Amino acid sequence: MAIDLIFFNDGILVFDVEHWIELRKTYRIIGEIIGNTAFVPSLPLKINPEEVLLLLDKGIVNVLRITSASSDPTVSQQKLMHFENELLQSQATEYKKSRRIQLESMLDKIVAKRRETGDTRSPEEILNEEIEKSTIVTKSNMIWPISLKPFNFSQFVSEPVNMEEVSKFSTKLKKLVYKDLWEKQYYITQGDKFGGDFLVYLGDPICHHAIFIVRCVESEQKISPSEIVAFGRLGTSVRKKAVLASLLDDKVSYVTINWIDA
């Protein structure tokens, strides 16, 4: 049975822990945990566009968009609004708990600064003000939803999201490079933090360090010698091979940059 993924706010999410385990252990899909409860990572898992496109191509998943909270149009909007408000409140509560722990560790310094400006309120009053002004969660920036339990989406009305719509968030080159690396049995994650498009691992990133930083270069894209040198140096500095990936006659071609000290 295909796994249902939920399309929300231009992201594609997994809410069921069993689905997360299956995607990681069976299909080498890593994604990115974006939930957080008192500093403990939790679902949902956000799946990158290239991962989703591969899963759709293999028939492993369905991507669904929640369109309403009920098949009855007279109550659907109210139910959806109530549902979103509950999510918003729960996230604001968790965020305030986390923020309180952070601010309590530096409360003496905060109070001292306030005393310099003539603020004579109690430390608790100052703490509460700091928490309130630094924990604003709105529907535009909340994570939808944070939950430690599997979420039942059968109560909602949904519609399928096709591959063409998902493709808007990636490129043909990135899609094909990811697929090629995946079919070579590698584990792949996003490579932004190392100046590339993908990080490539021999095994699960929990146990292995990345061996390649892959940067996708379009056929019409110009890349200067200085950029190549900088990318090669970067790879050497973090003990990974720097790799440029392009399409040659619609097939993925790789160039590895080796840095040799003369």
UniProtKB/TrEMBL annotation:
Residue span(s) of domain TSEN34 N-terminal: 7-63
The organism sits in which domain of life? Eukaryota
Where does the tRNA intron endonuclease catalytic domain start and stop, copy by copy?
A: 174-251
Coiled-coil boundaries: none
Record key words, sorted: Lyase, tRNA processing
E.C. number: 4.6.1.16
Q: Name the reaction it catalyses.
A: pretRNA = a 3'-half-tRNA molecule with a 5'-OH end + a 5'-half-tRNA molecule with a 2',3'-cyclic phosphate end + an intron with a 2',3'-cyclic phosphate and a 5'-hydroxyl terminus
SUPFAM superfamilies attached to this UniProt entry: tRNA-intron endonuclease catalytic domain-like (SSF53032)
For this protein, the record's InterPro entries field holds: tRNA_endonuc-like_dom_sf, tRNA_intron_Endo_cat-like_sf, tRNA_intron_Endonuc_cat-like, TSEN34_N
Protein family per UniProt: Belongs to the tRNA-intron endonuclease family.
Report what the protein is called: tRNA-intron lyase
